[in-house]
């Protein structure tokens, strides 16, 4: 005869917090009508500890809340920097004060596209 047991599991309710207008209080943005979210900032709340068993759940909820995958953005950034280094090494790209700012602007524009794009 074999024994087994069942452990009930419920998923925690994750939320993105926003400032309730006119106060210093941050609550779930879905529960209130008049809320303010600072541009470029997300406050993500998960009411349970993060450990190996719920790691994938946490990552999926975080990506869903952000609207993009931050690892994908990081990989694209690193790929762009690698290309810039190769161009500099080959001599196809000159390192001047004007070109430095154009490169910085290009990287900023790419990151801004991925971070602030509405989905």
UniProtKB/TrEMBL annotation:
<protein>
    <recommendedName>
        <fullName>STAS domain-containing protein</fullName>
    </recommendedName>
</protein>
<dbReference type="Pfam" id="PF01740">
    <property type="entry name" value="STAS"/>
</dbReference>
<dbReference type="InterPro" id="IPR036513">
    <property type="entry name" value="STAS_dom_sf"/>
</dbReference>
<feature type="domain" description="STAS">
    <location>
        <begin position="31"/>
        <end position="119"/>
    </location>
</feature>
<dbReference type="InterPro" id="IPR002645">
    <property type="entry name" value="STAS_dom"/>
</dbReference>
């Amino acid at each position: 005869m074999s024994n087994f047991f069942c452990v009930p599991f419920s998923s925690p309710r994750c939320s993105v917090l926003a400032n309730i207008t006119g106060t210093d209080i941050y609550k779930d943005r879905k529960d209130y009508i008049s809320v303010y979210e600072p541009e470029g900032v997300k406050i993500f709340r998960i009411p349970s500890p993060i450990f190996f068993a719920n790691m994938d759940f946490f990552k999926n909820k975080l990506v869903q809340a952000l609207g993009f995958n931050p690892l994908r953005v990081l990989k694209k950034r690193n790929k762009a920097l690698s290309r810039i280094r190769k161009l500099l090494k080959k001599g196809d790209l000159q390192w001047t004060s004007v070109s430095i700012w154009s490169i910085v602007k290009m990287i900023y524009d790419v990151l801004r596209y991925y971070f602030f794009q509405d989905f």
